[in-house]
Design a protein that fits this description.
The chain is α/β, with parallel strands linked by helices. It folds into 2 domains: 10-84, lambda repressor-like DNA-binding domains (434 Repressor (Amino-terminal Domain)), CATH 1.10.260.40; 118-297, Lambda Exonuclease, Chain A (Alpha-Beta Complex). The protein has 15 helices and 8 strands. A 5-stranded mixed sheet has the order 2-5-6-7-8. It has a 3-stranded mixed sheet with strand order 1-4-3. A hairpin with a 2-residue loop joins strand 3 and strand 4 (218-222). Helix 4 crosses helix 6 (71-79). It starts with 9 loop residues before the first helix and ends with a helix.
């Protein structure tokens, strides 16, 4: 759950005091304008990394931006510690596999992040609404130190409102965002989740629980969407393309979540399940299950080691053959100047 600062206007006041527009501060801190406005309004709080970059851009102590002690400041203290170990996550690893140059610009140079599209905004709204519903069912499953969960109705209303804030850019089809249509679609997709997916879920024992796993001498931060009392790790995704069994069998996030389950509970999981909301003309829900064993864990360790070695040695290269291609990459111009 998002943790709201006790002074929602603190960030905005600091920005205005320095004569910066939202766009200027967002560019300096490497965040989206939409995220910055949400933080300034108190709808959400920045991640530890974003908080650190905001503080650096504003030349203030991070506590002036987010004064309330929280589990997010615990993350910040780790980032500011003297521990030289690089902390990775499945999403960072995915960025490196996508294109090491993309990884460099996003995570090392901290250039402005990937645009907040209609696709990602709706996916985030559906994900957060499902999280709120799960925590209302099992409040004890919330991460330690997290704020008390909102009622699902309030949570989905706030998350959908956030999904249509300023800064959302057109989807791949090029149309301008339609806030009313986005709200309606997010509500419909959440209703589909409630009807088709929620009834078959086990009881949550952990929701969005952050787990630190050491693999190949690297700290890997994994945050499974949900761990259930019947031994499953579950992950909710929205997509426009029907996923295949091969997609989940090869998914490195599933391998990382398998390790997280074992680190957290000290035993092997039954499996990893991906619950999909497929955003076709007539949306539908589907679930694909997969399992992980020692060979999968060893393979992830080798990939993490290769990625960490690349970053430690400062070796990066562009990968035009990645499935996203270069045309939609936000770093295309700087990449052409660099490589």
């Amino acid at each position: 759950m998002a943790v709201t600062a006790t002074e929602p206007s603190a960030l905005r006041s600091l920005r205005e005091r320095r004569g910066l527009t939202a766009a200027e501060l967002a560019r300096r801190a490497g965040v989206s304008v939409a995220s910055l406005r949400a933080w300034e309004a108190g709808h959400r709080s920045p991640s530890a990394g974003a908080l650190l970059r905001l503080a650096e851009a504003l030349a203030v102590d991070p506590r002036e931006i987010l004064p309330t002690p929280s589990w997010r400041l615990g993350r910040l203290s780790e980032e500011m510690s003297d521990d030289p170990a690089e902390t990775w996550s499945p999403s960072k690893l995915s960025d490196w596999l996508r294109c090491p140059a993309f990884f460099k610009f996003r995570h090392i140079d901290r250039l402005p992040t990937v645009p907040n599209t209609v696709e990602t905004a709706i996916g985030r709204a559906v994900h957060k609404a499902a999280e709120a519903a799960l925590l209302a069912l099992a409040p004890d499953a919330a991460p330690e130190g997290a704020a008390a969960p909102e009622k699902p109705e309030a949570a989905i209303a706030s998350e959908i409102a956030l999904a249509v804030t300023e800064g959302v850019e057109p989807d791949e089809d090029g149309g301008e965002p339609d806030p009313a249509a986005m709200r309606d679609e997010a509500k419909a997709l959440h209703a589909l989740w409630q009807a088709e997916i929620a009834p078959k879920l086990g009881k949550p024992v952990a929701v969005e629980q952050r787990v630190e796993v050491e693999i190949a001498g690297v700290r890997l931060t994994v945050i499974p969407d949900m761990i259930t009392d019947d031994g499953w790790v579950r992950d909710l995704k929205t997509t426009r393309r029907k996923p295949s069994q091969a997609d989940v069998d090869e998914n490195l996030q599933a391998t990382a979540e398998s390790l997280a389950y074992r680190e957290l509970l000290g035993e092997a999981e039954e499996g990893v399940a991906f619950d999909f909301i497929v955003r076709t003309r007539k949306p539908y829900a589907m679930t694909l299950e997969t399992t992980r064993g020692p060979r999968d864990h060893d393979r992830l360790a080798r990939i993490v080691a290769a990625a960490a070695e690349s970053v430690a040695s400062g070796r990066y290269w562009p990968n035009p053959a990645n499935r996203f291609g270069c045309a939609s990459c936000p770093y295309r111009d700087v990449c052409r100047e660099t490589f």
